[in-house]
Amino acid sequence: MSNGKTICTVCNYIYDEAKGKSDTKQMLKFEDLSDEWKCPECGSTKDMFQPCSCVSFPSHGQNCAVETEKKNVIDGSMTVEQIVAEHPSVACLLEQYGIDYCCGGKGKLDEACRKKGVKVEYLLEKFRAVIAKEGQSHEPDWTQSSLNKLIEHIVESYHEPLRQELVRVTELADKVARVHGENHPEMIKVKEVLSDFRTQLELHMQKEEMILFPAIVRIEAGGDLQFVGCGGGIEQPIDVMTQEHEVAGDALGTMRQLTHEYTPPSDACNTFKVLLHSLAKFEAQMHEHVHKENNILFPRALLLRGINKTQATATKP
Ligand SMILES: [Fe+2]
Ligand SMILES: [Fe+2]
């Protein structure tokens, strides 16, 4: 599930495990770096780093080839989800500032920044620097690819790794709750929230893979929906999946809150730290995953049915 990249929240340096062989003599996963390791750019300690969710985020220090061309293509009046749909590489920065770009991405960037106490112009400057490097991305433009290809990508890059990760992270949470639950009762709650989250998410992905995704593929190919259990159309399943994404987002928010933004307490053992790091990474991957469904796949699938999702949701109370 991991893309092997971890970002310094102070200077935006990215520790890229794939590049580590040449960047550092020790090719290690970020978690395995020694506690003395420091950011080579600004000297920050390891705890100032967080998972970098964006697959296409370019490596620190790469040259900007198209900066001037794309410099002014975004502004604060755009919705957060629109910015990420057009420029997926900025997802990392939004994660960094705690701005939701999937279920909660319908608001304007101006407003989201105001709520988080971030200066919008400051963030836009960072966006522009990242967007300028998008030409180096290897990820296809999902707003243009076939829906079939996008679905294959979602299943391979998010659903399958997520199933494995859910097993690993719930085991870690069980262990931390057992060992540290007495001093940290919040970790017992985390374990419970995660357990429900896992049950619901496994069922959710199964419904997407068994019903909704085959129906979308069939619509794209011009076929009949009766054969895939979607005889009533895809609008209702999409509505249900979108609501379930919101429930999943709430659970992630609860875990973030319970763990004080995934901050290890002073008495945390390594398993505790790894759990918090894994949860943070997990949340970032979920945001990316849900964003691709909510803001790209579902609206494009509805458009094939002649429904404009933006207008449809705008008319809801
Ligand atoms: Fe999904
Ligand atoms: Fe989903």
Q: How would you portray this structure in words?
A:
- The structure is a single chain.
- With 317 residues, the chain is mainly α.
- It folds into two domains: 5-136, Single Sheet (Rubrerythrin, domain 2); 147-314, no CATH class.
- Helices cover 55% and strands 3% of the residues.
- The protein has eleven helices and three strands.
- The protein has helices at residues 20-23, 67-70, 80-86, 91-96, 109-116, 120-131, 147-180, 186-220, 235-258, 270-304, 309-314; strands spanning 5-8, 14-16, 49-51.
- It has a three-stranded antiparallel β-sheet.
- A hairpin with a 5-residue loop joins strand 1 and strand 2.
- Helix 7 runs antiparallel to helix 10 and helix 9 packs antiparallel against helix 10 (270-304).
- The longest helix is centred in the middle third of the chain and has 35 residues, at 186-220.
- The radius of gyration is 20 Å and the shape is globular.
- It starts with a strand and ends with a helix.
- The model is unreliable at 54-72 and 311-317 (pLDDT under 50).
- One fe (ii) ion (FE2) binds next to helix 7, helix 8 and helix 10.
Write the layout of secondary structure elements.
Layout (H helix, E strand, L loop, with lengths): L4 E4 L5 E3 L3 H4 L25 E3 L15 H4 L9 H7 L4 H6 L12 H8 L3 H12 L15 H34 L5 H35 L14 H24 L11 H35 L4 H6 L3
Helix pairs in contact: 3-10, 7-8, 7-10, 8-9, 9-10
Bound molecules: fe (ii) ion (2 copies).
Major β-sheet profile: 3 strands, antiparallel
Element string (H = helix, E = strand): EEHEHHHHHHHHHH
Indicate how many domains the architecture comprises: 2
In angstroms, what separates the terminal alpha carbons?
A: 37 Å
Oligomer: single chain
Order of the strands making up the biggest sheet: 2-1-3
| Bound small-molecule species | fe (ii) ion
Structural class: mainly alpha
Please count the helical segments.
Answer: 11
Give the strand tally: 3
Are there runs of 5+ residues with pLDDT below 50, and where?
A: 54-72, 311-317
Helix coverage percent: 55-70%
Mean pLDDT across all residues, rounded? 80
Assign an overall shape: globular
